[in-house]
Amino acid sequence: QLAGKITEENAVDDILTDEMKNVFSWCFQNYLNIAKVNSQYNTFLAQAWINEMKSGEYNPIHYHTSKNEVGLSSVLMLKRPDWYGVEASREEAPANGWLQFTGGDQSPLSMSELRVDAQVGEFYVFPYTLLHGVYPFNSTDEKRRTLSYNCDLIKKLKNNPKEI
Fold this sequence. Notes:
Largest sheet: 5 strands, antiparallel
Distance between the termini: 35 Å
Strand order of the largest sheet: 1-2-9-4-7
Order of helices and strands: EHEEEEEEEE
Oligomer: single chain
Low-confidence stretches: none
Number of strands: 9
Helix content: 10-25%
Radius of gyration: 17 Å
Structural class: mainly beta
């Protein structure tokens, strides 16, 4: 159910070991700790998949959902071409093969977008609702491989029934 124009998307939930799943769980928990909301949510690993992007393929700006509307997603860069090909224009501002996050806020004190040239081993965690996408690349037979994992967040119930 990928939003993008990618022919090879493979579910990997069943082949990840418990140890691997624990690492992803820890990363999602750590994100919640940094955001100072770890006491508010329980985490539940949802689905994991690998995307194999070939030259010309791309993933347009989109957001994630799962069984729950509140959650975290992630991108782990596993493999990338040595070169993403010739830029159509503005070589000083490359985009081929890059990951883009778009917040949509245009105020002077905010960052409305972030474009990253993700390197092998880099791992990005972000809310389901954050718009993101991947630009196409060209001029190579090499593939760009990423592993993504979604994590549903379920609000914890308060101890005091009057606070529910």
